[in-house]
């Protein structure tokens, strides 16, 4: 099938990758917004986990990752709940990894497993995403996941261009099965974008506000039995529809915002990157480069 990614361009996808994308468990990600609840007050920030997941796979493929790692990249977010990380704020999951705790359970999806079995892919190989170094590496290092959400989010909010993204992607390389950059110029550029993304988008007044508001509404709805925890296993629109059966969600959002959010705080995970760079045949962190 032909797939057009808004930041990487046009690709032909086939075989196991195409068939996984066509499963219901993967198609569900079209209704899970990458930025969580922010689309409710800023409709332009409407990209999805579907786009991000395919983007991660494309980066891994570009870097020569195995088909197993490409699949792991493709499905690494299949267990994300409605509104992405909102459930972490509701239940105060400090590591923001509620979806990761569900990953193995969702990986048992029968339709997905039928595709994996058809192509002789062992499901158990995909269970531990951390063993795939291109897909997942701990901060402050680079990973395909971290790279894609940074580029995709920054493009969506208008803080980088397709030309810059193309330039940066051409600066990616691998060393010892991990992602490095070909020069400190690429590393400095990415680090600056990541710092901006964290401070001016993840921790922006707009983003923090809507997550605080939605956290309050969701807790109230859970307490009153309007929704259940398992409703988060569906998608953004399912959860919104269920809330709207008993209450006007957008009206409640407006009421809470008008009344102000003094003394209400949202704890988010702190992030910083220090990309590795090729310098005179050595691999150094950006902070180690003169």
Automatic annotation (TrEMBL):
One GO biological process term: dGTP catabolic process
Lineage: superkingdom: Bacteria
Entry GO MF terms: dGTPase activity
Protein's UniProt keywords contain Hydrolase: yes
InterPro entries in UniProt: dGTPase-like, HD/PDEase_dom, HD_domain
Domain (HD/PDEase): residue spans on this chain: 45-159
Pfam families reported for this sequence: HD
Keywords, in A-Z order: Hydrolase
Classification via PANTHER family: DEOXYNUCLEOSIDE TRIPHOSPHATE TRIPHOSPHOHYDROLASE (PTHR11373), METAL-DEPENDENT PHOSPHOHYDROLASE (PTHR11373:SF41)
Protein name: Phosphohydrolase
């Amino acid at each position: 099938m032909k797939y057009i990614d808004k930041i990487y361009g046009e690709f032909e996808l086939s075989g196991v990758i195409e068939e996984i994308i066509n499963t219901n468990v993967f198609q569900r990600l079209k209704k899970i917004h990458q930025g969580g609840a922010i689309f409710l007050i800023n409709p332009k920030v409407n990209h999805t986990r579907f786009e991000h997941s395919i983007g991660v796979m494309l980066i891994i493929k570009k870097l020569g990752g195995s088909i197993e790692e490409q699949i792991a990249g493709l499905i690494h977010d299949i267990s994300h709940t409605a509104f992405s990380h909102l459930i972490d704020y509701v239940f105060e999951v400090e590591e923001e990894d509620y979806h990761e705790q569900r990953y193995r359970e969702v990986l048992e999806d029968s339709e997905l497993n039928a595709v994996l079995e058809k192509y002789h892919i062992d499901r158990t190989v995909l269970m531990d995403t951390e063993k795939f170094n291109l897909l997942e590496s701990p901060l402050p290092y680079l990973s395909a996941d971290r790279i894609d959400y940074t580029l995709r989010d920054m493009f969506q909010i208008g803080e980088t261009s397709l030309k810059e993204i193309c330039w940066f992607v051409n600066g990616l390389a691998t060393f010892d099965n991990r992602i490095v950059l070909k020069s400190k110029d690429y590393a400095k550029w990415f680090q600056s974008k990541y710092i901006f993304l964290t401070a001016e988008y993840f921790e922006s007044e707009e983003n923090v506000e809507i997550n605080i508001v939605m956290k309050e509404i969701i807790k109230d709805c859970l307490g009153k039995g309007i929704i259940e925890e398992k409703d988060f296993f569906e998608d953004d629109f399912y959860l919104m529809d269920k809330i709207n059966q008993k209450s006007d969600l957008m009206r409640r959002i407006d009421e809470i915002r008008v009344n102000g959010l003094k003394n209400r705080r949202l704890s988010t995970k702190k992030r910083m990157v220090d990309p590795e760079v090729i310098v005179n045949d050595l691999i150094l962190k950006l902070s180690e480069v003169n």
